[in-house]
Each structure stands twice: as C-alpha cells, then as structure tokens.
Amino acid sequence: MSDATNLTPAQIVVLHAEAYAQRSPFVDPAALRVVMSTHFHTEWAAAILGHPYQGWNHIANWEIVLLALALKAEPDRPTPAVVAERQERARREMEEAERARQVRYQAELDAWHVLRDRLPIKVTVGHNWTIGHWESGYVTGRDHIVAQEELRVGRLHRAVRQVLCETPSKTTSGRRNKDPLRGVDRRDDGEDRIPTCVACLRVAERIARPA
Fold first, then answer.
1. CA distance 46 to 135
2. How far apart are CA 183 and CA 126, in angstroms?
3. Is pLDDT of 97 > 60?
4. 163: burial class by Cβ within 10 Å (0-12, 13-18, 19+)?
5. Is the pTM of this model over 0.70?
6. Reduced to 3 states, what is the DSSP secondary structure of residue 154?
7. What are the distances in angstroms from CA 67 to CA 3, 8, 32?
8. Exposed/middle/buried for 95, CB within 10 Å: 0-12, 13-18, 19+?
9. Environment class of 49 (CB within 10 Å of its CB; exposed 0-12, middle 13-18, buried 19+)
10. Tens of pLDDT along 134-149?
11. Cα–Cα distances in angstroms (integers) from residue 179 to residues 98, 168, 176, in the given order
C-alpha cells in the first residue's frame, strides 16, 4: 500500500471500475473542474492511477473521472514521505540562503561603516524614490550618501543635505537646477542604509582619509 493515499487497493479497484464504466470520448467537464480546482500531490495521483501522473491532459478521459471520484472518496489526503522530505529540504535551503544573505549584508554594512568613518564630514544615506510600476507597486531608486555638514575638499563642494554625486546641471533653458535629485529623501529616518549609488561611493572613496 502506498503512503501517498489512505485508500486501500480494493477501494482503488472499485473506483477504477466505476470510472471506466463512465468512459467517453469526451471529457467530463464536472470531473475536470474537480481535478483542476483541487490541490493534490502527483504522488497521490500516481497511486490512484497506477502509473505516473504528468497532468490531466496526459491521461485518458475516464482517468480524469477516476481522479475526481478518488478526490471525493479521500478529501483528507496524506502528505507522501517523499513530498515531506522535499518540503523539508526546501525549508533548509531557504534558511541557509537567508543566513548567507544576512552574512553578506553584514559584511557590506561593516565595509560601509569603515568608509563612512574615514570621511571628513558626517553623512547619512537617503533613498532617491523614483516612479515605479503602479500595478505591482515596484519602486526603483538608489541609496545616496547625503552630506550632513558642508564639504570642501579641493575643488569639490557640497552643501549641507546635498548628495555626494550631485553636481550643478543646466536645463534646456540654460537655468541652473538647484536640486537635480528632487526625489531623494534627505532626512535621517533612523535606518542604517548601505549606499548603492556608484557615483556617491566613488566620491566617498576619493575624499576618504587614508585607512
């Protein structure tokens, strides 16, 4: 007896006979709705059918009826051991991936803290919110390094609350845009962000004190 179903071999034989008696060249729409709308493991279906299950469109019409009858006969189906093992393996892999992600994040955060402490001024990191996809809610943007003090290093000058990558730019009318990154959140929200703006990081590396 398979661990994928609690139905006995005798019960399955009876279901086979009942379904085969209803065989037709046409798909039973009611049976198909049951099969398509009910969750079951492929191992369970294979135990009922007596052969591997690859989908309702790969079996005979009467076998669709068979699965529908078996689903009605066994509403509480067991989780096969192979499925439980697969789920446990997936859970472990997800936990390992999350631990690895946390290790990488901490290493990146530590590296940023070292660079931040070498800068000649105090800085925070603010996110430049850009227009995202309205339907999915996905938002893109970069985390910029924001000056909390006036910065003057050689010819480089940044005012308070300017991002390090920010430079004066001209619009098509020739007027200077005083705030080309209008979308950046320049307030310190208390979140210890890691800057992702490559241009900001290049400026930070250039002006950082020697390690």
1. 40
2. 10
3. yes
4. buried
5. no
6. coil
7. 17, 15, 9
8. exposed
9. middle
10. 455 555 678 899 999 9
11. 38, 8, 9
